Amino acid sequence: MKQIQCPKCGSIFSVDDNDYASIVSQVRNIEFNQEIERQQAEIEKRFDIEKQNLRMQYNQALDQQKGQNTLELQKRDAEIERLKSDLANIASNEQLKYNALLAEQRNETTRVKAEMQQSMQQQSQAHERQLYEKQSQIEALRNDLSRNDERVKLAVLEEQNKAQQTIQQKEQDIASLRSEIDIMRNMKARLSTKMVGETLEIHCNTQFNTLIRPLLPNAYFEKDNDASGGSKGDFIFRDFDNGTEYVSIMFEMKNEVEETERKHRNEDFLDKLHRDREAKHCEYAVLVSMLETESELYNSGIVDMSRRHPKMYVIRPQFFIPLITLLVQTSKKAVEYQRQLEIAQRQSIDVTNFEKKINDFKEGFARNYNIASKKLFDAVDQIDRAIGQLQKIKENLLGSENQLRIANDKADGLTIKKLTYNNPTMKAMFKEAQNATENDDKTTDNE
Fold this sequence. Notes:
Blueprint: E1 2-5, E2 12-15, H1 17-190, H2 193-212, E3 220-223, E4 235-241, E5 244-254, H3 270-279, E6 284-289, H4 296-299, E7 303-304, E8 312-315, H5 320-346, H6 351-412, H7 416-419, H8 424-446
Parallel strand pairs: 5-6, 6-8
Antiparallel strand pairs: 1-2, 3-4, 4-5, 7-8
């Protein structure tokens, strides 16, 4: 307990610690506030004094600056007046110079105009002289052109005469050539069929000896002179590999005179050629023919006649060498295959069993292929059915998603107002719950 004496009545009373601390705090606060007010008043008084001093100093400095500015303005006014005077003098001098230059320029212009007029007169006179000279040249050129026209006409006449002479000479040459052609045709018509055929045979024989003989020095190519079977071919070709014949060809050469009344066809000689080939044991039969000269079939190249007789061909003379080369190369490959087959047989390879295994493999492969193909088509059908089911599931899922979207929109649109519409009981319960929530919020704010 604390005892406190009243300063007015002198009575003493006791207070507890809390009351004492409160009284002390009140006294301290009062004294502190008084001290603050006193110091604030002193500070404001000093601030007013300093403000007045600063204002006086500012006014003094302002007056001093105004005086200096006035002096500076006076100096500048004097300088401006001096510069105006100088500018007036300079303008006067420049005007005098401009007038002098203008007069000089006018004099120069007058002089130049006079010179230009004189020059133009001289140029006009020169132009007239040039024009007169040009006209004289044009007249001379016209005269030359007239003379050239005469010369050209004469040259054209000469060329026409020469061309006429050339045409006449050409016509004479053509007539001469036609007469020679007629003579040749008559000579050719007088040739026998046998002589014409022999001419083609000589050509083929020459081609063979020139092009094939160097490549196949051991080949046999001779005329068929054996007619013991009732007929014979024209040439027989045979070639050998290590003493073994690997290719043989019976040739028949057919040519025809253009003026022959009865025109032969290539197929007229195929049966005889086939019989000659079999009689002389030849593998191939070739008809070298100049018959049916307009036929696109025979003019296109080597014609295979296997539809009539096996291994028979009809060719033009220009395909004689290519066909021999082709058949030789093909037969050589056949000989090589035969040699490989003989080697395989000598090595005791069971070709029959090998072919059986190949056939068994083919049959097994075909069976497996059919099974795999059936399974593949079954799998494709199943995939198609699965795709159809998945498509239905997709449609159902899309429909479900649409329904969920509608339900979500309904849920978003659901409010307390809609729930309590025409339902006073639910409306009262929601109102009571809202009031309770607001009271709890106010209590929390007060605390």
